[in-house]
Write a structure and sequence with these properties.
The complex is a heterodimer. Chain A is about 70% helix and about 0% strand. Chain A has helices at about 10-15, 20-40, 45-65, 75-90, 100-105, 115-120, 125-135, 135-145, 155-160, 165-185, 185-190. In chain A, helix 3 (about 45-65) crosses helix 4 (about 75-90) and helix 7 (about 125-135) crosses helix 10 (about 165-185). The model of chain A is unreliable at about 1-5, about 95-100 and about 185-194 (pLDDT under 50). Chain B has helices at about 15-20, 25-40, 40-60, 70-75, 75-115, 125-130, 130-135, 140-160, 165-180, 385-405, 410-420, 425-445, 450-480, 485-505, 510-535; strands at about 5, 10, 190-195, 200, 205, 210-220, 220-225, 225-235, 240, 245-255, 255, 260-270, 275, 280-285, 290-295, 295-305, 310, 315-325, 325, 330-340, 345, 350-355, 360, 365, 370-375. In chain B, strands 3, 4, 6, 8, 10, 12, 14, 16, 18, 20, 22, 23 and 25 form a 13-stranded parallel β-sheet that branches. In chain B, strands 5-7-9-11-13-15-17-19-21-24 form a 10-stranded parallel β-sheet, with no helix packed on it. The longest helix of chain B is centred in the first third of the chain and has 40 residues, at about 75-115. The chains are: A mainly alpha, B alpha/beta.
Amino acid sequence: MSAPGITEPTEAITRARAGDVEAWGELYRDYAPAIFRFCRRALPTREDAEDATMEIFMKLKDKLVQYDSTRSFSAWLYKVSANHCWDMLRRRKIRQDKETDDLDNLPLEHPDPSQLDMLIEQRTSEEVRKALDKLGGRARMALVMRYYSDMSYDEIADALGVRRAFVGVVLLRARHELRQALEGNAALAAGGAL
Amino acid sequence: MSEVPKDNMKHLDEMTLLLYIERQLDRARGLEVSAHTQECDECSTLLRALERESRLLTRAMLEEDEPLPSRLAQFQERARKSMQWIWGLVFGLAATGVYALYTEYIQPWQQQLEAAGFGGSNLLGLLIFQGAMWKGWQSMITLLEVLAMVTLAGLGAMFFRRRIRRGSALALVFAGFCTVLALPTGASATEKRGGQNPTVGKEETIKGDVYLAGDRVRVEGTVDGDVFAAGKDIDIDGHVTGDVISAGRYLRIRGTVDGNVRSCGNTAVISGNLGKNIMWFGDAVTVDATGKVGGGVTMFGGTLAIDGHLNRDILFYGEEVNVNGAVGGSIREKGNMMIIGSNAQVDGPVKFEGNKPADVAPGAKLASPVEFKQMEKKREYRQSHYYIWRVIWTAAFVLFGMVLFLLVPGFARETVNAAELYGAPIGLGILVFFGVPLAAIIACFTVVGIPLAVFVAGFWILMLCCAEIVVGAVIGNLILGRATDTWGMIGRMALGFVIVRIVYTPLAHVHVVGLLAGLGIWMWGMGAISLALYRRLQPVIAPNVPSAPYTPPMPPNTTVGGPLPA
């Protein structure tokens, strides 16, 4: 999960670890926009995202020594960011999603493909972003981790504190919530006919 | 992961199809799904819809719909730019500060203290616990209250920060601050006068405090408040109802001062009446035969001569005390000489630690004989209890360091990392080590500055205590490598600290090398703490600054839209 267009900043990381302020600035300039956008998608308000971005980079100063340079830096950074954002959400007790136990009971029904197709066809990116804002914390985090930062199921399970087997369920439930938010149709969210 | 019967054909459920496009199915199941979707139009349509949904999600999330906020664009950037000239400034200031401190304070004091023959190891304790130190400080309470309110306002704003918008929080802090400043502060007013000879005339009455600065400062009239004076010659011939706080060559008080004198300068002569205490940093203080002091004297300097009347105690560190008048309290001197003349009357005990016994004239009236203690250079390191105490102190410092590391692990790590830069922390440490006490002394000459100076001095002492711990942690890291967890850091700190103490303790008894090693450790550690603090303060909100140019996002290598498994 490397970031196309941005080569791994191995040298900058080495220098930043040694306290080089210039190197730190390089890392910040290269990665702050993406991390801000990650936080913006994952957290409820813009100010939360700003705070989280700064806190993540402050935290990064301490955590940089823990980074394993054989792995992708951006993947590691997203993981740190995901953990931080999820911690923020948990601290505020806005986990409005159903808990893991409920995930077993998700009906695995077959939605009407043509209506789902139509719904997706008609919606713009902006509408999707607005709908994302209406989702519960876990649903939004799961979607952002998977479809923004391309985190693996293992990483998502680790960040959200659920078993790996439930990650697919969390993602599917999040999609249903999103469809509901997009359409306002409870039947769609339940996996029924669109 | 089941197949749902529908329209006489078993269709794949949505979960299975999602896991299929997410490449989470094992190969055998993936092949089954692939084969099924090739035959079943409905499942194939659903599969494509899910893929499109994934792409829509990714696109919606990656699209840049709002620029990077200005405060994020400026976060780190400003500090990064400023660092280039800050180091030049720091080293320049450090050099200037060291030179000024040495020539103006250290050198003359060193000469005097050496002449007096004491090391001053317990100066601070005695100074703080001496009653005269705390007399007349009641006026500071109001200021402390204001500071407490501002602090509370800040804490309140921090607490509500999550619940209210940042702008509102900032406005709240400023509003609170302005409210505090706007609160009525009594009827007092402050007047400032400068020029060659700033004077308060004979017929003049000033209600409130007055600041006077010039070559020759004269107070001939009445000041109903404090006098803050700086000049070559300062004459108080009138009436001051508050304190006199001064810095100058000569201070002469021929009039009446109801409060205290707190000064630093060359010579002070009290011929008039002083209601409370004298605290003097300088060469000589003389209370003339006509002079009356209602309180006591605390002095650090050359010579104290009491020919007049002193109502309370004397605490003196310097060269010589010469008493030929009346002292209502005790005398405690650590210095070279004590002379008690035939006209002297001392109502309290007299304790003198010096190089030779006090010279007491036959007619002197003393409440008790002078308790003399010969000053001697201790060689306590030859005794076993010295090492026992060293071990106890080392253990105490390690414990102290452990508590600090556990309380603020992040900051501790930052400090140790900063110390490992060597050049920058040592440079900054020189500035902090010499500059902060100098600034605190200068701050003492203003009312607002005194509590600030006390706070800064306290913080400076705390940093001094932590300096060896920081250096110990660096040494530990050098030996064992960097730790990734807090307990690892503590272990390295403990090891390094013990090594520092083992090496440093014998060195401390080698005159120059020990002094330099100790100073080096203190400066290094203090510089590292200061540098870490500086870095912590870097994220400054910079409103109204244009955003940085847009940096493209890092598009993830999404699995969606790629070739499906065969």
